[in-house]
Each structure stands twice: as C-alpha cells, then as structure tokens.
Amino acid sequence: MRRFAAVLLALAGVVIAASAPIAADAHAALRTSDPAPNAFLQRPPTRITLTFTEPVDGRSSAISVLDGLAREVDTAEPLVSGATVSVELPVLSPGVYNVLWENVSRIDGHAIRGSYPFTVLMADGSLPDTTNVLGQDGMSADPAPRADGIAVRGLSLLGLAMLAAGALITILWGEAPVAIRRVLGSAAIGGAAVLLLATALNLATVCDAYRSISLGDLLFDTRSGQYWIVRVAAALAAAAGALVLSRKPRIGSAAVITAGLAYLWGYTATSHAAAVPGSGWARGLDMVHGVAALAWVGALLGLALAARAGRREDRWRQLMPRFSLTASLAVFLLLGTGFLSALVEIDHFSKFSGTRYGITLLVKLGLAVPLLALAGYNARRGYANLVAARQGEPRRFQLLVTLEASLGLAVVFAAAILTQTTASRSIVAGPSGRPFDASTTVAGMEVRLTIDPNHTGLNTYGVQITAGGAANPIEASRVRLTFRYQENQDIGPSTLTLSRSEPGSYLGQGPFMTLEGRWRIEAEIRRPDADDAVAFFDVRPAGVPVAGMVSTGTWTKPTPGLTWNQFGGLLLVFAGLGFTLYRQPLRSLGRRAGTAANGLAISGFGAGFLLLFAVHSHEMDTSLPANPVFPDANSIATGRTLYEQNCIACHGRTGVPPSGLQLNPYPLDLTVHVPQHPDGQLYNFIANGVPGSAMVAWKDAGLTEEQIWHLVNYLRTFAPVDQ
Questions:
Q1: Is 109 left (phi over 0), alpha (psi -120 to 50) or beta?
Q2: pLDDT tens by residue, 278-299
Q3: Which distant-in-sequence residues (6+ apart) come within 8 Å of 228 by Cβ?
Q4: 3-state secondary structure of 523
Q5: Which residues, other chains included, contact 467 with Cβ-Cβ below 8 Å and sequence gap of 6+?
Q6: Could you read off the pLDDT of 674-711 as tens digits, one per residue?
C-alpha cells in the first residue's frame, strides 16, 4: 500500500507540474473580416483584414484575392500581427471578388483555409453584371477529421497504453513471477516502438502544415515543432525505460511513467483544451482525464497479458486489491474530468447530435457503458474467482479481462478521432438559406414579411398588409423596416423605407443584414386614418458562420454555460465524493489520514453545495442582456398594461412626457430615445433606474424580469411623431 501511495503521489506531482500556465490559444478559425463575407459595398475596399481566434504563423499564412472569373488580383505582401492578417488592395472595379485565405496556428500547428465572396456595387448602387465561378463559400463549419491525424493520434495513444500496461502492473505487482515480468517488459518495449513510429509519422503531418518554411525553422521556431521535439525525447526515454523494465523494475517503471506523462503533456499543450478561454483549467482537466484513461486501459491490458502468461498457482491475491483500487480511482477521475471537459467543449445540448464532435463523443460514451458494466462484474466476481483459484479460472478471467481491455482500446480509438474533430463550441450552426416568409397579426392587420434569398448581404424585402386575405389589401402611407442585430447590441440599428409596388404591397432592396446570426426586424406601418403599428419578426439569414471564441486569460472561467460559483462548486463536490469513496484506503495509511479524509469530504460537499445553490454569483458582466421574450401581441398587451400602471405619469400615454412636471432632469421623449438604444440597454434603464433622475429601479419596486421585458417590447411600438 505504501508503494501504491507513493505512485499516486508521484503521478499527482507530475500532473500538477504539467498544469503550470502556458500561454495558449486555439485553432486559428476566422473570427471577423473586413469586408464581411457576402458584403455588398458602395465603395471598393482598400484593404482586406482578417482576424482569427488565435495568433497565426506569418510564414505559412496568406491571403489572395480573385475576381469572379478566378483571375488573381495583384496585391501587396500580407502583413501579420498576432491574430490579424491584412493585405492592401489596388483600386477594384465593380464586380464579384473572392477572398482566399490559409493559415497555420502558432499554437497547435493546424493548417486551415477558407474563402468567401464580396461584391463591389456600381456607382448607382446597382448590382454589377458579373458572375462568380467560385461559388459562395469554400469552407465547412464542421469539416471531417483528417485520416492521417486520426492514425497518428491513435497510434500514439496505443503506444502509451502499452507502456502503461507494462509499467503499472510491474509497480503494482512487485512479487510477480519472472515470466510475467518478461511479458510486461515486452509489452512496454512494443509500446515504445509504436510510440516512436507515431512520432515519426507526426513529423510528416506537421511538415505538411508548414510547407513554406524549412525543417530547422519548423522544429525550433514553431510551437508545434518544439512540442514535437519534447515528444521525441519522451518517446526515447520511454524506450530506454522499457528495455530495462523486466531487469530493473523500479528504475524502468519510473522512467516509463515519467516519459509517458511528458509525452501526453506534449499533446495536451496543443489540443482542444488549449483552444478555450481559461486554458489552464481546461489543460489541467484534459491532462488528468488522459492520465486516468491510460492508467485504466493500460492496467487492464497489462492484467490481461499477465493473466495469459500466469499460472493458476500464482499469487494473484497480492495484485488484485492494488489493481482494483488503481482502476476504481482512474474510473472516478475519468468520469469527473470527462464531465467537466464536456462542459468546456460543448456549449449547447443540441450540439451532441448536431456536430461531428458531439456524435463522436456519444459513440465514445456508448462504448464506455458496456466497458464500465464489464469492469463492475470483474471487480465483484472475476477478481474474487481468480484469487480463489476456482475451477475454470484463470481461463474465464482471461476472456473477460481481454474483452474489457478490447473495449478500452476501442474507447481510446474514439478519443483519437475526437482529438482531430472540430470542437463543438467552435461551430456556429448556420441556417438553411431558404427565403424567409412569415406573417403576424397586429392592430387588426395581417402583416407578411418576405426576404429573398435571405442571405447575409443584398436581399429583396417585401411587406404585404391585408385585412383577412390578399383580396383585402390595406394601404399605408409609409412602411419602414428597422434591423437590429441580436448577437451584438453594440451594432446599431439600420432602417429601410419600402416603396409601394401594388395595393397593400411594398418592396425594398439593400445589404442590411450584414452578419450571420439572429436579427429582429421591426415593420413600422403608418396609416393616415389609424394609429401607427409595429410588427416584429425574428430572422436568421444564411451566411458564413464566424467563430466567436475569444481567448481571455489562462485561468479565466473555461465553461461558457456555468458561472464561477457553479464551476467551483462542481470541482468541490467531485473532490468531496472522491474523499468519501476512498476514505477506507486512506485510513490504511494512518489514523490521521482517515480523519483528514472525513473532514475533507464534509468540507468539499458543504462548500460545493453552497456555491452551487446558496451563494449568489457576483461576476461582472459587461455585455448587454439579450431579450428572451418575443414581442407578440400578448407580450405587447402586457407591456402596455404595465406602462399605463407605472410609467404614464412621467412619460405620457404616447411616450411624449406631459408639460408642467416638476422634475429635474425632465423625463425623456421615448419616441425619440427608444429607437436609439438596444433592448438590453432599455432593460437596464428600467430595471436599475437612472441615477440622478426620478427614474427608479423597477426591479426593486416590484417588477419581475419578465415584466420588464414586456415593457421593453411595448416601448418598441412607439413611433417618432415628427416623421
């Protein structure tokens, strides 16, 4: 048990050391571009500027511009500054142009490329009479993983599992017969050979990404090359340890485990975990997850080999308690870190079935279920039967453990695929691209909005106003559309006044939805003989998805769906559960260790549940809240009632404050000021009040969050009286 405790402490020390902060970011996906994808420009741009989610290597990154007939435009040399690549353009004539870009991440060495078009309009704003032979989009938001990357990563994990098989069983079973130690040593030597082969093949994939630079610059001046050297050194050290494992078990196993951890860290530092905000946390979770998985699968593989090489009279009683404790601890860490890592990489439940990463993760979990079931059976029955040396053992045990190890290797292969698949949080699901066609009822009118083709950029907008069908058109003196981008409220609204085409029908054209994402369109209808009315529509145009992941700090919160309270609470609850499950083994280390385990378990559960359920989060959030309530007729009616009950005295029935109020400053004219602010700002004004004025904080005066949003929706119906 002392030997086992020493091994665990050594593993923990290496993991903690490996988790030291390293400046890391993510795969260099396109975040923003100027001009934007599918933009329609009145004036030709003078420069192309692309900003990626992480720094790129200028030696292997480029931008080229082609016209609609695939002829290259003469440009200056691209300038690279961190995550930004830009290139100056000559004067462009009206027409369609295509931006083709490629880059290599300075962090992980992944090479990606993409393309998008933009259009320079004629001087009068009309479309140029040109075509685009390259199509609309040259980049998939969720590409299939490369087969060579899967093969390299799969061989690497197999080699590490074979190394763990030899080293762990050698440590756990120091009394093993010589014949078994030789088999374990052979497994470790085979693992080292596989690891060296995978490392050599990995150099070919890295060189393919950095085609434009020399091998020396690649190895010593890039992050990918530097960590490849680390992996080469670790693989050689593992091979040296494996060669002496059977003759010098302590020295050999220590060398193999240390080298294996260093090799695994070389991958963790350039993995999906390094791609997220709070990469220190994410890399730490990923490292512990990998160590736990390889310890479990490796120990299983080693046990299967030992069972095949051993005899019935061998002293299995010495090994099995130690193995069971090691395997159970590995499974506990595997499940806990796997859960937290899934929260880091998958930012929405729908992405489990809607992305390659989510589907692969579900397959991995599906393989883990029978693996855990078989492990549970072996732990309760198989190991006991083996120790008891009952008739038919160890042959039955050999079969069960071999099957368990095979399922473990299948899970490892699924993990290899997962590492080469685009993380779900980096994928922005785009809409279908069908024309938009929706109707709503407001003020006794049926208002129909059509958008064709419903893409980012230039669209034709149509509004039809009827009273119960096309046979009863309603005439309006003005129909105006207001476009509000819901993904970023710092982007101000734009407006388009439609022209009458036929009775009750109004048309307009323009590049008003410039970005992919959610837009709210307000159709303001003015009639000479009735009150103005506003109809609301939620629209999502098809376009080029843009990654929204931004690097913040190494130790910032890595989980987008959890607060710091919840993230810390989960960590403490898992820690408390661990001390509860393993307090008996800890008691065997001494009375004080058992007492400390009890205290730590109680403290972990208590503090964890307090953070999860009892402590209010005070995290600073500088972003504006998004409106979760669609402004349908019921919401607007509710908002109107609330306005008349609480706001009319100061702001008037129509949003214009009455004269003669003894207030300083005087209440604002809502018909003027409401259109100037996004929904989130209006919500904050109502909820929190306006310091130095008579505007109170209505969230403290009795209004709920939902009621305030109803108020915001009603305020949107106010129309400027001077137009």
A1: left
A2: 677 888 888 999 999 899 899 8
A3: 199, 202, 203, 206, 219, 266
A4: strand
A5: 444, 445, 446, 473, 474
A6: 887 888 889 988 998 888 888 889 998 889 999 999 99
